[in-house]
Amino acid sequence: MDNNGADDEKNIKVWDIGGQSIASEMIDKYIAGAQAALIVYDVTNMRSFDNVQDWLQVVKRVTKNEEKPPHTALVGNKTDLEQKRVVTVEAHNTLAKKHDMMPMYVSAKTGDSVLMLFRQTVADLLKIVLSKADQEADIVVVEGEIQSDAREARRRVDHSQNSNVCNVM
Hints:
Blueprint: E1 2-3, E2 6-7, H1 25-31, E3 36-42, H2 46-63, E4 71-77, H3 89-98, E5 102-105, H4 114-125, H5 132-136, H6 150-155
Parallel strand pairs: 3-4, 4-5
Antiparallel strand pairs: 1-2
Keywords: Nucleotide-binding
Organism: Diploscapter pachys
InterPro entries: P-loop_NTPase, Small_GTPase
């Protein structure tokens, strides 16, 4: 990242507490003093999405006496399973906006947008506006031949209203 012409390296500590019980006493120790909280849920699991509210409450409770609340991001994971999505893009964006969270999507399995999530989070913390090149640095262009099969075309269903992922027909 470039901030006023100077490239600065920043170190970040990441605590993955997703496997922890929300009632665990250790949770408070991980969250206290955090500058950012990435609340990740599974886009194919509505219960996972519903649990976001509980995690938000924990973050707010633990950080309520801190000078500045942590920067938060709502992260929908498993975008590689778009065909199994149950949490709509609209629901994701509505929740993110309601709680002033940065809305993001990733696929931990494929690595899609994971680096961008961290890059954007650090840029937001440092109040750096990323250039378009920085924002697009991790985009992988996949090229392939589109084959047309009349039988397959009849079976296709337009799911574009349920997703922000490109649908080629």
